[in-house]
Amino acid sequence: MDEVCIVLDSADAAIGSASKKTCHLMSNIRAGLLHRAFSVFLFDPASKKLLLQQRASEKITFPDMWTNTCCSHPLGVPGETGDGLAASVRGVKRAARRKLQQELGIGPERVPEAGFRFLTRIHYAAESSGVWGEHEIDYILFIQAAVDLELNPNEVKDAKYVSPDELKEMFKNNELTFTPWFRLICETLLFEWWDHLDNGLEKFEGETQIRRM
User: Fold this and answer.
1) What is the pLDDT of residues 176-206, one digit of tens each?
2) Which of 75, 77, 139, 149 has the greatest CB tally within 10 Å of its CB?
3) SS3 assignment, position 91
4) Catalytic residue among 71, 103, 134, 186
């Protein structure tokens, strides 16, 4: 929780930094503290299935919940902090490669920076418990890559590939829980993007407007 996140204004301009702990305390979130994040959606190139992960039980926020391939934060360090949208996108892509290796054992050579496709940003807030929560501007990244997995048990409890229909069936299972950002994206945008994964995804790329959710 000592990692340094990028603190933002509502327009996604970096205005400072704060520890991961500070950024995820609900007392600070209620006071308006906002930070930058990213969500990676990694698809198998052959099957077009999406790789999901189940967050580890030890996670402070949203433990044991299913979510997209990788969700984390660029750090307030050179190379991951951007000034302007283009530089910020480069920063989150670099952070994504770092976290895919840390959480899932995916080597950076399998997920080159150029392979990521930036779609949009979503601004949302969600409470995990009375103490912890999220308030993020979340960069959505798609990538198709054939990868081998080596799960970090401190970060990830399980992982699986799913088709659109299989994911919809998971949402019908009341015994499963899902992170709020993943549920938001699934309920609004994901399946349309997924339908255009190999044909027309470019029309969804590079959105400059922040989606307030």
Assistant:
1) 999 999 999 999 999 999 999 999 999 999 9
2) 139
3) helix
4) 71
Whether residue 5 lies in the annotated active site: no
Gap between the Cα atoms of 21 and 87, Å rounded? 25
The mean predicted confidence, pLDDT, of the chain is 96
Strand, helix or coil for residue 36: strand
> Looking at residue 1, what is its pLDDT?
57
Q: Give the SS3 label for residue 37.
A: strand
Q: Specify whether 136 is catalytic.
A: yes
CB 122 within 8 A of CB 138: yes
**Per-residue model confidence as pLDDT tens digits over 1-13:** 578 999 999 999 9
CA dist 164 and 194 (Å) reads: 8
Please tell me the pTM assigned to this model. 0.96
Distance CA 109, CA 96 (A): 13
From 80, 103, 134, 136, active-site residue: 136
**Burial of 29 from C-beta contacts in 10 A (0-12 / 13-18 / 19+):** buried
